[in-house]
Amino acid sequence: MIVNIPAGPVQIIKFDFETEAEKYLPDYVRPLEPARVSGKLIKIEDGFKAEGKISYGFEYDCDLCLKPSKFSKTVEFNEIFKRDYDEDTYHFEGDKIDLTQLVTDAIVLSLPSRLICKPDCKGLCPICGTDRNVQKCGCKVEEAVNNPFDILKGIGGE
Q1: Cα(60)–Cα(68) distance, rounded to whole angstroms?
Q2: Quick one: average pLDDT of 142-151?
Q3: Of 10, 33, 89, 157, which residue is least crowded by CB atoms under 10 Å?
């Protein structure tokens, strides 16, 4: 995902391309299509500002009930590329700007921490394996005795 900077004065360089999503996604998901990256590089005093969006999607098995589900997202980015190394910006050299690290960072940071099929998914019964979204199984699931997190119950107004 390299954008070439043309010779001579330039103020805006537009880009729009697709890239293999497998490179940016965890290996426990299945990409639906290539990731689409579009935007522009805007000349600033000592580099370029990259503005744009990344669209991607994938299939996964729900973390709670294992049902196949789909996820898609569009992530916007607004980052700076400079020739000098700076911990707050991306670096580039010569007449090429490589967007690979920016795309990787944007996708990884936008991934949900839990992949669940729906917000109220009840998951599988830990005793018999029944999908509790479909039917009740009647198993008695005892809560953990001496759970160190019991003290947190009720925090947050619930």
Answers
A1: 6
A2: 68
A3: 157
Does residue 10 or residue 54 have the better pLDDT? 54
Kindly give, in sequence order, each residue whose CB lies less than 8 Å from that of residue 69, ignoring residues fewer than 6 positions away.
Answer: 59, 60, 61, 62, 115, 116, 117
Residue ranges of E strands in 33-122: 35-44, 47-61, 68-82, 90-91, 96-98
95-113 pLDDT per residue, tens? 999 999 999 999 999 998 8
Cβ-Cβ contacts under 8 Å for 15 (sequence gap 6 or more): 3, 37, 38, 39, 40, 41, 52, 99
How far CA 134 is from CA of 60, 71, 120, 124, in Å, comes to 19, 22, 13, 10
The one-letter code for the residue type at 22 is: E
What does pTM read for this prediction?
0.77
Look-up of token digits 């043309």: 6
Encoded tokens for 151: 């003290």
